[in-house]
Amino acid sequence: MKQTTNSILMIRPVAFRMNEQTAVNNYYQKVLDGLLPATVNAKAQQEFDAFVEKLTAVGVDVTVVDDTLNPDTPDSIFPNNWISFHENGDVALYPMFAENRRQERREEILDLLEEKGFVIHNIIDYTSAEEDGFFLEGTGSLLLDRANAKAYCALSPRADEELFIEFCEDFDYAPVIFEAFQTVDSERKLIYHTNVMMCLGETFAVICSDCIDDKKERKMVLDNLKENGKEIILITEAQMNNFAGNMLEIRGANDKRYLVMSAAAHQSLTSKQIEQLEKHAEILSSSLDTIEACGGGSARCMMAEIFLPRN
């Protein structure tokens, strides 16, 4: 199984804003005072377009789908939470915590990918769990080490343990389960998505291990990464708050590896960390300030990797 892909799906926003329904447990979201919703969306579109341009310039195959005004989906820019695409032609659809995010799941996106020559064999749909109040938000909640058939998950209101284990059984992954915390108003609170505190590359892992308060769990997670020969690059909680954990390794032209992150994440790294990362992949960063502030997500969340076979 490949760990990285050259193909990604991105959704261009039309009504992006801070989503009041996700702010209850996404502590990264901020209200940008004095900005009209139309201004916020225009800024988000500019950041989105510049980001896509940088990706396509290095040979990444980006499928951009425009969001629609109806239904109202302020977070549609983060498709990796509702869908994942797998090498055997399987597609997984995930149950979402915020009701207005459930509307992001659009069947025509699958039709569009098939028109582009991607092959879909099977849809595995976990969304009925929403009715019972259980959630698992795609590759936000679960980090897949595809090559080593391991899945990492920091449990939270948006990542249910039983659902995660069900996913692992369906897709043949060994589960690595832990809890990760961040300090909010001097209280330790669960981090809403695993992919803000951790990134898995082919030959490396970026992780804020300080977030794993339980020492046994921390050791278990780090041991799992070491076991698979990954160089571990530790980041601080302050760097994580600048989205330094929310990175994704993808492939450009001639299979060249790129580590994609936001400008804020890039700027938060030390020269030593940058040196460590550049041994594995070239860094590609883009300014996502508005998207990060209002959406509480960053570069990784904006890219749904497509591993599907092609005609």
From TrEMBL:
InterPro entries: Amdntrnsf_FN0238. It comes from Flavobacterium limicola. This is Amidinotransferase. Coiled coil: none annotated. Signal peptide: none annotated. It comes from the Bacteria. Pfam families: DDAH_eukar (PF19420). Transmembrane segments: none annotated.
